[in-house]
Amino acid sequence: MKVGGELRVTMSLCGLPNLPAFSHVAEAVGLGAIGLDVATVITTRLGRVAKSTGFTDALIEAEAQLVSLAQESLGGQCYSADVIDCFAVRMIAHLDPDGTEPTEAQLHDRRHLTLVTEKTGMTKLTGLLPPTAAGHLRAALEPFTSPRIPTFTSDPTQPGAPDPADDDEVDPLLRDTRTRGQKLADGLLQLVTTAAGLPSMPRLNGAAPTVNVHATLDDIISGRGVGWIDGLTEPVPASTIETLL
């Protein structure tokens, strides 16, 4: 309904027609050259800029370019609405460069991280990161998912060791079968564990962050039984206790 209002011709009080706010989009939609999903992306993105800058010649030109891009094809397929949205974001940065600063500040204020312990003992991480923080995190985690990083080889330090990216040369027993999500989770844990021990990190009562686990001496010696980790309600098996010790 909203995009329809942006594209329809209205009548003025004196009886003359008012052209649509986004005439290029309206014409393309009328001809069936672009879909409503693309039209919504263009009118929404540029409409926000128009509220602060008005319908300038530069904005109208950007609208025409986005409509033209939406009708082009790459490899036999037209650009999707998501790709057009990326183009629109880049154009908006040039149309209203001052507008990115308050947007960045608003996004920074919305940052948060929540850890929720589930009944299974797993902990669910949810949150939001501003663009800068997300960029740092993505850059730090990217090496952990790279196929060029040797993992689980028989002797990765030996010259000429097989490249794990080549599945034909890797022993099936040594092949890394983790999913991308599992690699990211392992990478995040490794980053946190390494960073927590650095001298520059905050300390609690002068001590570095430590995982406290509680178990009886008999269970530790026998390798049986369960233990408890501070902050978690579910018990952990003896194998986990042995790993932490």
TrEMBL record:
Region (Disordered): 146-170
Every DUF222 domain range: 22-244
Organism superkingdom: Bacteria
Record Pfam families: DUF222 (PF02720)
InterPro entries associated with the record: DUF222
Protein name: DUF222 domain-containing protein
Species in which this protein is naturally found: Subtercola boreus
